[in-house]
């Protein structure tokens, strides 16, 4: 993210020099800084980070390196849509990775019950470090098994894994085929010129957002549950505009 790069420019430049000196076997290293002249970021969907988040990163990286559990005391935002019971904090977490997703960094790990959680590195995410160690190697398989079935990082609506088929219009598919969406993805060309995206994963809030990007350029073929829920969300959205209804966070999140 741009907010991280700006405040860590000197460290990044040192790493660049080390990598090019160690790995480059020709004169390519002469062009290592060419991106400064010709590369432009839009920073679209890039999270904005300040001093508080940088301090959090230092502390979290320490916990990762030293295999120390940490305690989440409170959160302000929940972009991963983690399903939490009432009054869940303080919550002990075994940190496994620092995850970059959609321009935002997350504290990613497992609870003591083995549930995957992803908390945003954010000024309103409050946690404290501990000196309690854990066996990261023993948790690795559990962590990866849960992460590989979710679409994105958001919590699923249920524990099931679905065989999902989504049809894309031809040109829209050509653009989206260039992206990685999920480890299970595969694309099939259809007789009508369109393409079918095949996924095997859970259903969560991010999958609905993925579909909403395409609107009438995408069509869910299966499972029926996803078809019904997406149609319901489209109808709810249309009703808000047709009847000038108030929007409500809790109501919007009920289905996932």
The coarse overall form would be globular
Secondary structural class: alpha+beta
E-strand count: 9
Helix % is: 25-40%
Kindly report the oligomeric state of this protein.
Answer: single chain
> How far do the termini sit from each other?
28 Å
Strand content: 15-25%
Strand count, sense and barrel status of the largest sheet are:
5 strands, antiparallel
User: If you average the pLDDT, what whole number results?
Assistant: 89
Low-confidence stretches: none
Count of discrete alpha- or pi-helical segments spanning 4 or more residues: 9
- Pattern of helices and strands: HHHHEEEEEHEHEEHEHH
Q: What is the alpha-carbon Rg in Å?
A: 21 Å
Q: Give the strand order, joined by hyphens, for the main sheet.
A: 4-3-2-1-5
Which short descriptors sum up this protein?
256 residues; alpha+beta; five-stranded antiparallel beta sheet; 9 helices
């Amino acid at each position: 993210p741009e907010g991280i790069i700006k405040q860590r420019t000197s460290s990044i430049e040192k790493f660049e020099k080390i990598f090019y000196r160690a790995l480059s076997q020709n004169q390519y290293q002469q062009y290592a800084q060419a991106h400064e002249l010709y590369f432009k970021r839009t920073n679209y969907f890039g999270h904005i980070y300040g001093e508080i988040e940088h301090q959090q990163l230092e502390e979290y990286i320490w916990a990762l390196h030293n295999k120390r559990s940490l305690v989440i005391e409170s959160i302000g935002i929940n972009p991963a849509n983690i399903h939490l019971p009432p009054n869940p904090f303080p919550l002990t977490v075994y940190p496994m990775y620092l995850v970059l997703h959609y321009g935002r960094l997350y504290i990613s790990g497992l609870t003591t019950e083995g549930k995957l959680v992803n908390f945003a590195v954010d000024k309103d995410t409050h946690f404290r470090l501990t000196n309690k160690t854990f066996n990261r190697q023993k948790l690795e398989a559990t962590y990866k098994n849960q992460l590989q079935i979710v679409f994105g990082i958001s919590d699923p609506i249920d524990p099931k894994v679905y065989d999902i088929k989504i049809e894309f219009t031809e040109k829209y598919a050509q653009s989206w085929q260039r992206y990685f969406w999920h480890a299970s993805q595969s694309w099939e060309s259809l007789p009508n010129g369109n393409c079918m995206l095949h996924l095997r994963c859970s259903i969560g809030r991010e999958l609905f957002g993925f579909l909403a990007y395409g609107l009438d350029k995408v069509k869910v073929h299966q499972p029926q549950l996803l078809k019904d829920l997406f149609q319901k969300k489209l109808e709810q959205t249309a009703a808000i505009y047709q009847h000038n209804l108030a929007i409500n966070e809790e109501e919007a999140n009920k289905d996932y």
